């Protein structure tokens, strides 16, 4: 007989769990009262993608963002699509923050890209410029090679385009396709999974889909319990998902 | 330029080392001015729930880390290249703000092994010095483990470190690390609870005949009041330790464990948003007269005259300020002369991710920064280096500091990285996987070093610190050897899939992906002025009223995380200053 820890919970743990659950709900109610007192800068529920007028992206870029968000993040049993979750709204807002405008990164020259991949992006652009320039380049490339903008392609063609961008196949003049893809895709993931106050993850649907409890940040009762975490997510504004 | 009133001591940087020195020096009656380039920080409001766990601010905007817009380091693999700036945070994450990286560290709190501190002697006695390759600079620390023991102990007591002793006053204790140096006291608190990955590791390590023990963690396992009267609350496993300030007064930090006392003290003045540009020297360069700094709120430059200058700016910036100020001789890799910049090393971390089925609940959003399980059965004193084929040491461990989807989750191998199937992979990675790691030492080499960059300048026009570093065959071999041992250890756990592998033998240092903020060396302590920039008390050989405690003082890196030794060095330095230097100011080693 081995002493391998059993991943399925023994009876003892199940009982602890039930007790734990009661205690847990009690303490979370107190925690929630605290959460409710907190209001992030944009606490009102952000508008849905369809109701939102972009401030950073132009119309063509906006169409690209929506189409790309839904191709990279299609709807399935684990949550809504990128645009249903409000990811384009997140992106339009996030591109206007000091972060995306380059506030925390070193951006002075000289610019020398000869050392290669191990040394990261060595050009002059801030994240917002990389995203915007990349979208323009990618959309133009679609028109040149496929006769239509990205948003007008069917799903199969969109997947092929994104795969090519990820591999860095098209040669772009200002920002490499792979740099654009990795920064852009990282931003969309952040938008999908960030607290809803940032614009995406509407109704915490992305958190619910993957089983993430959001900002609960207190698991003392669950560290030694070997079963699925039972409570739904909570967001910064104190809403339960 | 405005000249401030003279003070007994000026401290550059308010992280772990700065706070410890400020406490010990003001205890001795000195007036201390502390200059910290970042903002002041308190648990409330800066780390208050729930805002502190907003992963966009913490992990994307990197609110608690050093922004690189003003200053960063330049990096290259070897001397024939022109270095380029680390433009985005990558391989390591320096801290800023009151508390330094000591606010957003994880909490793994190791002492060094006795043989770590006498590595050259250990190799000579057991294997012969011919084992050491020509270009490798292996040195002993210029003090003994026994001399450092009281300081290791004090730092653990200040931090409320949670663990289990393996050797207490010479007696073996079940469940602790049987290979540790003999401790004078048990850990202040018992170990943290085990999450599933840690339980699995402990079981598998025992099966393999090893001696697993709980990682000593400065994340309080229970309520605690430290010797300074500072209060800690029990860690609630929030999962936001690394990169974040603790919302709960549970993770040891200068802010929680030392500053509450200092802030009330006459004779202590903290100036935040004060960026030190250089240390000023007397005309004959034999003494520091103080420092020049910029008030980042007004943009004005000030001079702060001081009798003692304490470099507590983190390993990288301690070396940078010494080079900029002309303290000591810069290292020249061609001639091998000079010591400032020499012996730069790093840490070698290799991870394996274990994926299990959906009945196995790892719930990786749960996390305790420093806690988990580890083994020392393969570390320096237990290792047959000749047989293993490399020099150094290392540990295997299970850790779960907490993860979340904005911070990035690895899906199982083969899962799509976007599109259909991607979310399922994220879910699997979040709920049903765990991570085991092999962390090894990194030796110092003739051509891994720090110097001033000839091209790039920071926001104040100063040449940036240039890092010339690459992995060497010794470290690649060590990584592979430990990862092989780790694979053998996990086999009986039967994971569905294992992702990750050791660095390849010819793999270069990737500066863009996070590995650890365990940078060491550059201004190391040595028994002679030829061996390093500092003497055994972290005192500059050249300018005796300058002390530089920090991981810059490590002659090479060991298998453990650095901060247990860094904190002990700060107490050791403070004792040398208050016990010896103040009575007879000058070089403490002649
Ligand atoms: C994410 C992360 C996780 C970590 N986890 C662990 C762990 O689990 N275990 C472990 O042992 N170690 C860990 N570390 C390392 C640990 O944080 C450091 O070893 C420790 O904080 C070093 O203490 P220090 O006093 O030398 O520097 P710091 O604590 O970094 O303090 C240095 C201070 O100096 C300031 N400063 C720098 N330059 C200037 C200047 N020119 N003028 C004024 N101020 C200046 C900085 O802003 C900073 O506040 C971790 C680090 C990071 C980033
Ligand atoms: S895991 Fe524990 S010690 Fe770390 S930040 Fe959360 S409560 Fe604090």
From TrEMBL, chain A:
Keywords: Plasmid, Signal
Signal sequence, start to end: 1-43
Alphabetical list of InterPro entries matching this protein: Gluconate_2DH_su3, TAT_signal
Name of the protein in question: Gluconate 2-dehydrogenase subunit 3 family protein
Source species of the chain: Falsirhodobacter algicola
From TrEMBL, chain B:
Pfam (any one): GMC_oxred_N
Coiled coil: none
Keywords, alphabetical: FAD, Flavoprotein, Oxidoreductase, Plasmid
Domain Glucose-methanol-choline oxidoreductase N-terminal: 233-343
Glucose-methanol-choline oxidoreductase C-terminal domain boundaries: 446-570
GO molecular function, one term: flavin adenine dinucleotide binding
Gene3D superfamilies attached to this UniProt entry: FAD/NAD(P)-binding domain (3.50.50.60)
Family designation: Belongs to the GMC oxidoreductase family.
Stated name of the protein: GMC family oxidoreductase
Organism: Falsirhodobacter algicola
Taxonomy of the source species: Bacteria, Pseudomonadati, Pseudomonadota, Alphaproteobacteria, Rhodobacterales
């Amino acid at each position: 007989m081995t002493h391998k820890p059993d991943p399925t919970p023994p009876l003892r743990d199940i009982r602890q769990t039930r007790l734990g659950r009661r205690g847990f709900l009690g303490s979370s109610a107190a925690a929630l009262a605290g959460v409710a007192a907190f209001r992030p800068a944009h606490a009102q529920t952000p508008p849905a993608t369809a109701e939102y007028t972009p401030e950073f992206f132009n119309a063509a870029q906006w169409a690209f963002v929506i189409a790309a968000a839904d191709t990279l993040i299609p709807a399935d049993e684990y949550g809504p699509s990128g645009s249903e979750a409000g990811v384009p709204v997140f992106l339009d807002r996030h591109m206007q923050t000091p972060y995306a405008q380059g506030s925390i990164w070193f951006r002075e020259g000289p610019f020398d890209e000869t050392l290669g991949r191990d040394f990261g992006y060595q050009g002059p652009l801030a994240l917002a410029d990389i995203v915007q320039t990349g979208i323009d380049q990618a959309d133009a490339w679609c028109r040149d090679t496929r006769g239509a903008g990205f948003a007008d392609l069917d799903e199969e063609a969109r997947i092929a385009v994104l795969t090519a961008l990820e591999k860095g196949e098209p040669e772009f003049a200002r920002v490499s396709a792979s740099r654009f893809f990795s920064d852009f895709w990282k931003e969309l993931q952040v938008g999908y999974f960030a607290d809803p106050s940032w614009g995406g993850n509407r109704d915490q649907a992305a958190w619910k889909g993957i089983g993430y409890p959001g900002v609960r940040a207190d698991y003392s009762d669950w560290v030694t319990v070997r079963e699925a975490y039972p409570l739904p997510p909570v967001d910064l504004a104190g809403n339960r998902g | 330029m405005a000249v401030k009133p003279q003070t007994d001591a000026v401290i550059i940087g308010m992280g772990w080392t700065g706070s410890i020195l400020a406490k010990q020096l003001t205890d001795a009656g000195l007036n201390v001015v502390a200059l910290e380039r970042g903002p002041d920080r308190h648990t409330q409001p800066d780390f208050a729930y729930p805002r502190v766990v907003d992963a966009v601010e913490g992990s994307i905007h990197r609110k608690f880390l050093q922004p690189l817009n003003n200053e960063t380091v330049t990096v290259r693999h070897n001397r024939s290249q022109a270095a380029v700036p680390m433009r985005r945070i990558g391989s390591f994450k320096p801290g800023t703000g009151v508390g330094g990286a000591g606010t957003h560290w994880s909490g793994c709190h190791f002492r060094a092994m006795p043989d770590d501190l006498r590595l050259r002697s250990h190799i000579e006695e057991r294997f012969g010095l011919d084992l050491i390759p020509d270009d490798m600079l292996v040195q002993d620390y210029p003090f003994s483990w026994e001399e450092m023991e009281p300081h290791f102990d004090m730092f653990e007591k200040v931090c409320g470190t949670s663990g289990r002793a393996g050797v207490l006053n010479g007696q073996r204790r079940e469940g602790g690390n049987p290979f540790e140096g003999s401790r004078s006291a048990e850990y202040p608190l018992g170990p943290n609870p085990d999450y599933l990955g840690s339980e699995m590791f402990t079981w598998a390590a025992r099966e393999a005949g090893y001696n697993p023990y709980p990682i000593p963690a400065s994340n309080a396992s229970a309520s605690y009041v430290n010797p300074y009267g500072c209060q800690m609350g029990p860690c609630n496993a929030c999962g936001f330790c690394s990169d974040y300030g603790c919302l709960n007064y549970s993770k040891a930090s200068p802010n929680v464990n030392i500053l509450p006392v200092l802030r009330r003290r006459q004779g202590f003045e903290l100036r935040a948003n004060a960026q030190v540009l250089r240390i000023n020297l007397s005309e004959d360069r034999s003494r520091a007269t103080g420092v020049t700094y910029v008030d980042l709120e007004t943009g004005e430059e000030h001079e702060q005259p001081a009798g003692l200058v304490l470099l507590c700016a983190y390993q990288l910036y301690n070396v940078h300020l010494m080079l900029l100020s002309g303290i000591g001789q810069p290292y020249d890799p061609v001639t091998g002369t000079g010591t400032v910049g020499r012996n730069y090393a790093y840490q070698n971390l290799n991870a394996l991710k274990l994926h299990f089925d959906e009945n196995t609940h790892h719930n990786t959003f749960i996390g305790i920064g420093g806690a988990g399980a580890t083994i020392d059965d393969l570390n320096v004193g237990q290792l047959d280096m000749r047989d293993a084929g490399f020099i150094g040491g290392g540990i295997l461990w299970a850790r779960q500091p907490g993860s979340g989807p904005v911070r990035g989750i690895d899906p199982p191998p083969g899962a799509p990285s976007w599109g259909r199937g991607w979310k399922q992979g994220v879910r699997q990675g979040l709920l049903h996987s765990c991570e085991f790691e092999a962390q090894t030492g990194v030796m110092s080499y003739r051509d891994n070093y720090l110097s001033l960059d000839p091209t790039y300048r920071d926001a104040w026009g100063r040449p940036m610190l240039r890092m010339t570093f690459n992995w060497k065959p010794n470290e690649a071999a060590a990584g592979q050897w430990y990862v092989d041992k780790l694979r053998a250890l996990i086999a009986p756990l039967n994971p569905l899939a294992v992702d990750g592998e050791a660095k390849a033998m010819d793999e270069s240092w990737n500066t863009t992906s996070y590995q650890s903020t365990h940078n060491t060396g550059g201004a190391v302590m040595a028994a002679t002025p030829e061996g390093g920039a500092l003497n055994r008390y972290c005192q500059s050989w050249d300018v005796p009223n300058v002390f530089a405690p920090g991981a810059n003082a490590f002659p090479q890196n060991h298998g453990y995380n650095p901060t247990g030794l860094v904190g002990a060095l700060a107490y050791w330095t403070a004792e040398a200053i208050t016990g010896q230097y103040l009575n007879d100011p000058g070089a403490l080693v002649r």
